[in-house]
Design a protein that fits this description.
There is one protein chain. By secondary structure, the protein is mainly α. It folds into two domains: about 160 residues, no CATH class; about 30 residues. Helices cover about 85% and strands about 0% of the residues. The chain contains nine helices and no strands. Helix 3 runs antiparallel to helix 4, helix 3 crosses helix 8 and helix 6 packs parallel to helix 8.
Length: about 200
């Protein structure tokens, strides 16, 4: 029903090219707050109207803006409410991810943005009640949403543009993921080594 409503909105307004952002950008913010429809719908609309590269780029920027608006609003107004909601969950799913936030910081956010494990609006809510600061959260949304948009772009391009060669898009995404994994492993190694050095210094 939501998909049909969005398509009907675009048909009635006859938005094409970059003008489609008049509709998709506010919808990206609504999606970031309520999560009532998949963000992939907006990515497909942007790609259909502006082409693969421009569609992915505008979708990425929209997702970053929406994620940071939701984070700021939730941290300012809804953190107490969401904490109570987490405490009422018997399965402990959100509590588990909250512990990962505290342990791995922005890397947990990047993983959750990349994989459709938890809705985007819930990710922003959980981050807002964690100890993550605004600037690291901003960088995590930049990297995490880039990974998410890139992945959706690979999937949607094979549907919308079946004749286009997507080997470069897939290969560059694999290289991007490998780079992220190497950075993560290196940062965790350095962090643990720094912790061991502190313990040894205290012991001495």
């Amino acid at each position: 029903m939501i998909n049909d409503w969005i398509e009907a909105l675009l048909d009635r307004t006859s938005l094409t090219g970059y003008y489609v952002l008049i509709a998709t950008f506010p919808l990206a913010i609504v999606q970031g707050i309520l999560g009532i429809f998949p963000f992939s719908i907006l990515i497909v609309l942007n790609i259909s109207a502006m082409g693969l590269v421009d569609g992915l780029l505008t979708s990425w920027i929209s997702s970053i803006v929406a994620a940071n608006i939701v984070f700021y609003c939730c941290r300012s107004f809804f953190s107490d409410w969401f904490n109570r909601k987490i405490n009422r969950k018997e399965d402990g799913r959100y509590e588990k991810w909250q512990k990962y936030f505290e342990t791995y910081g922005i890397w947990t956010l990047i993983l959750l943005r990349t994989l459709p494990i938890i809705p985007n609006n819930v990710i922003s809510l959980m981050a807002s009640v964690s100890s993550i600061r605004m600037l690291p959260y901003f960088f995590s949304s930049v990297i995490g949403n880039l990974s998410q948009i890139w992945l959706y772009g690979i999937i949607s391009s094979s549907i919308l543009m079946p004749n286009q060669d997507s080997k470069l898009l897939i290969g560059s995404y694999i290289a991007f993921c490998i780079l992220l994994i190497l950075i993560f492993v290196t940062s965790q190694y350095l962090q643990r080594r720094k912790g061991d050095d502190k313990e040894n210094h205290v012991a001495l």
